[in-house]
Amino acid sequence: MRTIRIGVAAPGSRIDATIAERVTRLADMQFGARATLRFHPQCFLASGHFAGTDEERADAFVELANDPDLDAVWIARGGYGACRIVPRVLSRLGPDAAGKTYLGYSDAGSLLSAVYGQGGHVAHGPMPADILREGGDRTVVRALSFLLDGTPETLEPSIDPETPVVAFNLTILCHLLGTPYEPDFSGHVIMLEEVSEHLYRIDRALCQLTRNEKMRRAAGFRLGRVSLVPPNEPEFGRTPEEIIRHWCADSGIPWLGAADIGHDADNKIVPFGLLRPWRRWFRRHEPDDA
After folding, report:
1. Is 168 helix (H, G, I), strand (E, B) or coil?
2. How far is the C-alpha of 23 from the C-alpha of 21, rounded, in Å?
3. Residue 94 pLDDT grade (very low, low, confident, very high; cuts 50, 70, 90)
4. Average pLDDT over every residue of 25-52
5. Radius of gyration for the chain, computed over Cα atoms and rounded to the nearest angstrom
6. What angle do CA 138, 140, 141 make, to 5 degrees?
7. What are the residues facing 169 on neighbouring strands?
8. 3-state SS string over 24-80?
9. Is 120 exposed, middle or buried (CB count within 10 Å of its CB: 0-12, 13-18, 19+)?
10. How far apart are CA 97 and CA 202, in angstroms?
């Protein structure tokens, strides 16, 4: 039976120690010795908005990524801050970092995109802080089941094994455009989700996104859940789906439908790229007597 050792870092905002305790206890109850968690002390630091200084957050991520005794790096939570440490991280990742899985979403997309660009195994999916959501226990179990076994039921159901895919928070993806860490979208299905943004901001972000020439090489867009939308005066007059359909039609990027992702307990997992290399990764990490 497969076992996995998971390091947890917080490249953006901090978490409370009670989150680590709850997630560790849940992992022990559900998976026993199959899953061991190591929350880096940096997760609990505070430097204004951030979980420690830029240097402390970068150092913690690099330490876990380069640790030969770990199989995965799990992002503790979103918030803001991952984009600030990307240059401090990438040049320091060694050979052991290439063999790991990296799991997170929201603000972490800035860092995960850069790791994916270097060939890393990156997935958009639940984080330890999601245990605070209603139904959060099952969300965390979903993430651990994916890290352990790549359980098919944990994956976003529309994923086609023959088509590469990425998933991002819409605002984070817009902020990646034009940077050295912008993903190669060629042939990829792009899944998007958003939280706490006005509809006019979503419209503006999709206007920017679809006018990017590299974006037009994508296989198409899917839209996950757009939640906690603030009220607008006057009413914007279009739903999130109507907005993305408009910009897909305007740009010629195919509209492919809904995606089962979002800032909620039902957030499914989207492994970046093709599924085939992921299956090899899970087989490679099975014990010899599996």
Report:
1. strand
2. 6
3. very high
4. 97
5. 18
6. 60
7. 193
8. HHHHHHHHHHHEEEEECHHHHCCECCECCCHHHHHHHHHHHHCCCCCCEEEECCCCC
9. buried
10. 35
| Each residue's pLDDT tens digit, 239-264 | 999 999 999 999 999 999 999 999 99
Query: How far, in Å, CA of 108 to CA of 128, rounded?
Result: 13
Contact 115, 87 (CB under 8 A): no
Mind listing the domains of the chain with CATH numbers?
4-155 (3.40.50.10740), 165-258 (3.50.30.60)
Could you say which DSSP state residue 216 is in? Answer: G
User: Which residue bears the tokens 């603000």?
Assistant: 107
Dihedral sign (CA 225, 230, 231, 232)? negative
Which residue carries 């706490």 as its tokens?
196
pLDDT given at position 286 = 58
| pLDDT band (50, 70, 90) for residue 278 | confident
**CA-CA distances (angstroms) from residue 244 to 186, 201, 214, 263?**
19, 12, 18, 18
pLDDT band at 277 (very low <50, low <70, confident <90, very high): confident
The pTM (predicted TM-score) of the whole model is: 0.95
